[in-house]
Amino acid sequence: EVKLVESGGRFVRPGGSLRLSCAASGFTFSDHYMDWVRQAPGQGLEWVGRIRRRSNGFSTDYGASVKGRFTISRDDSRDSVFLDMDSLQIADTALYFCARVFVRGNHFFLDSWGQGTLVTVSS
Amino acid sequence: DIQLTQSPSFLSASLGDRVTITCRASQDISKFLIWYQQRPREAPKALIYGASILQSGVPSRFSGSGYDREFTLTISGLQPEDFATYYCQQSKANPVTFGQGTRLEIQ
Questions:
Q1: Does B13 touch chain A if contact means CB atoms closer than 8 Å?
Q2: Residue A97 touches chain B, beta carbons under 8 Å
Q3: Averaged over A58-72, what is the pLDDT?
Q4: Which of A71, A82, B81, B89 is the most exposed place for a label (fewest CB within 10 A)?
Q5: Taking 90 as the threshold, does the pLDDT of residue A41 lie above it?
Q6: Are strands B62-67 and B53-54 parallel, antiparallel or unpaired?
Q7: Residue B43 pLDDT > 90
């Protein structure tokens, strides 16, 4: 069974930093791209970013609102993906999900999701 | 960035009804469109990818269609567990973007 468990969310002041972790199990983690998606309270889904696998150079892409402040990394030896968040803003308050990217032909979609970890940025 | 606009934003329907949700893209995305369902206090779940391909395990009452800029998700014969929020997402280009969501409620 595919399982993704996020952790690290907490209350933080504006301008602060935080690292979120996502532990994966039940599949060959190193074979998959991994995404982070967030959802502000009562709002819709916003893509945070993606990290590809070793054969794709562990390359990353980010959404415009987090580019330059957030960094995604992974440790395949620990089946984990990380989201380092700097210069946090009140608008970054959200439930952060990690999700597995499933690739079928030219199609990419998020086929497994964790339950999320809550980040609250407030003064 | 590619913008996705869903309509309606809110939909009220009854058990057994057939409903359709539309997602319009700001530019051509071919068939790189995914639909997700999110029930309250749950993570999203992929229903359809490639605009019309049913994800494994998803009931056949869900169907998707469309190409280029306009896409639809249809649910035929609403069941209690279908009352949720639905999102479209494009995977044509980075950054990945989502529609704003359509909330489907029981009438």
A1: no
A2: yes
A3: 97
A4: B81
A5: yes
A6: unpaired
A7: yes
- Our CA-based measurement puts residue A29 at a distance from the nearest CA of chain B, in whole angstroms, of 19
Assess contact for B25 and A80: CB atoms under 8 A. no
Distance CA A59, CA A53 (A): 8
Residue with token string 């502000």: A40
pLDDT for A105 equals 87
For residue A50, the chain B residues in CB contact (below 8 A) are 94, 96
Is A43:A57 a contact under the CB 8 Å cutoff?
Answer: no
Identify the pLDDT of residue B107. Answer: 87
B39: contact with A, CB 8 A cutoff = no
β-bridge mates for residue A112, sequence order: A100
C-alpha of B15 from chain center: 18
Asked if B94 lies within 8 A of A44 by C-beta distance, the reply is no
The predicted structure's pLDDT at residue A104: 87
The DSSP H or E segment spanning B23 is strand B18-25
Amino acid letter at A73? S
Residue the block writes with tokens 């790189």 = B32
- The β-bridge relationship of strands A117-121 and A11-12 is parallel
Helix segments in A1-123, DSSP class H: none
The residue with tokens 């779940």 is B45
Residue A34: partners with Cβ closer than 8 Å, 6 or more residues away? A22, A24, A50, A51, A72, A74, A81, A98, A99, A100, A101
pLDDT of residue B2: 96
Tell me: pLDDT of A74 over 90: yes
